[in-house]
Amino acid sequence: MNYIKILGMFVLAFLMIIVAQALGAIFDEMIPFLGIGIIISALIYCIVIYFFVRLMIEKGLKQRRVDYRIVSPHFDIRAVILGIILPLSVILFYLIFVPGEFKISHFKTQDTLFRSLFWDIFQVAVAGAIVEELVFRGLLMGYIEKKTNIVVAILTTSIFFGAIHVLNGALNVGSFLQLLVGGSLAGVMFGLTAYVFRSIWASATLHFFWNISQVFYITEKQVDDKVFQYILDSHNFALTGGEFGFEASIISILGYVSVIVVLVMLRRRLRQ
Predict the structure, then answer these.
(1) How is residue 123 annotated by DSSP?
(2) What residue stretches are annotated with the CAAX prenyl protease 2/Lysostaphin resistance protein A-like domain (predicted)?
(3) SS3 for 52?
(4) How many helices (H) and strands (E) does the chain have?
(5) Which of 11, 228, 233, 244 has the most crowded CB, counting CB atoms within 10 A?
(6) How many alpha carbons lie under 13 Å from residue 101 in its C-beta half-sphere?
(7) How far is CA 122 from the centre of its chain?
(8) How far apart are CA 172 and CA 73, in angstroms?
(9) Which residues pair with 219 in a beta bridge?
C-alpha cells in the first residue's frame, strides 16, 4: 500500500510542477518587455509551488514543514563553498584541458539579450533551485523517508529527478542513459546536501550555484540564446554530455561524485 501512495505522490508532484510552470508562463507572455515577464514568471512559479507543498504537508499529511527539512530560509557557508567549488572546478577543467573557443553572442535587441540572461538567472538558477528542492528534497524525500528510510528516499527521488530532466531533450539511447545517470547522481548530491545540513535551503544553495554557472554555457555547437559560450572542438558525447549538454558529461558526473564523497565524509564526522 505504501508503494502505491509513494507512486501517487510522484504523480502529484509532477502535476504540481506542470501547473505552476503554466501559471508562471502566462506572465512571461503578457509582459515580454526587457525580460521583466520572466522575473515575474519565476516568482509566481516559486510562490505557487511553495503553497502547493505547504498545503500538502500541513493540510493533506497533517505534519510540520520542518519535518520535511523545509525550515526558514538561511544560508550555510559550507553549502555555499561547495556550490562555488563544484561549477568552478568543472568550468576550469574544460577551459584548461578540453580545446575550444570562447564566444560572446551578439543580440539584435536589448529585449532578447535581457530575456536570455534573465531566463538563466531567474528561471533556471533561482526558481529552478527553489522549486525543485521544495518538491524533490522537501515534499517527496521527506514523505518517502517516513514510509521507508532515508536511503530509499534519496535514491528514488534522485532517479525521478534524473528522469524528469530527460523530458528536456535527450533523444538517442546514449544521451538518454548519460542524462539518466548524471541527473540521478546530481539528485543524490542534492538529496545528501539536504539530509546532512537538515535543510532544503542548503541543497537549494548548491543547486543555485550549479544552475547559475550555465550563464557560461559549454556546448559542442554555438546556440543563439546564450550570451557567453565555450564551443568545444570535441564531439565526444562523454565530454559534451550528448544532446542534453555538459551537465550530463563525464566531467560533471565526476564533480557530482566528488561532492557526494565530501558529504558522506562530513556526515560521518558530524555523527562522531
Answers:
(1) I
(2) 116-212
(3) helix
(4) 11, 3
(5) 244
(6) 7
(7) 13
(8) 40
(9) 231
153 within 8 A of 173, measured Cβ to Cβ: no
Model confidence at 154, in pLDDT bands (50, 70, 90)? very high
Q: Where are the alpha helices (DSSP H) in 98-240?
A: 110-118, 128-132, 141-147, 150-166, 173-197, 200-212, 237-240
Count of Cβ atoms closer than 10 Å to residue 210 Cβ: 25
Edge to edge, the sheet with strand 228-232 lists 100-104, 228-232, 216-219
Q: Which residues, including other chains, have CB under 8 Å from residue 74's CB and lie 6 or more apart? A: 199, 201
Residue 177 has pLDDT above 90, yes or no: no
3-state secondary structure of 78: helix
CA–CA distance, 124 with 42 (Å, rounded to integer):
9
- Residue 219 φ/ψ, nearest 5 degrees: -150, 160
pLDDT level of residue 40 (50, 70, 90 thresholds): very high
Q: Which of 18, 19, 33, 195 is nearest to 113 (CA)?
A: 33
C-alpha cell at 78: 559550507
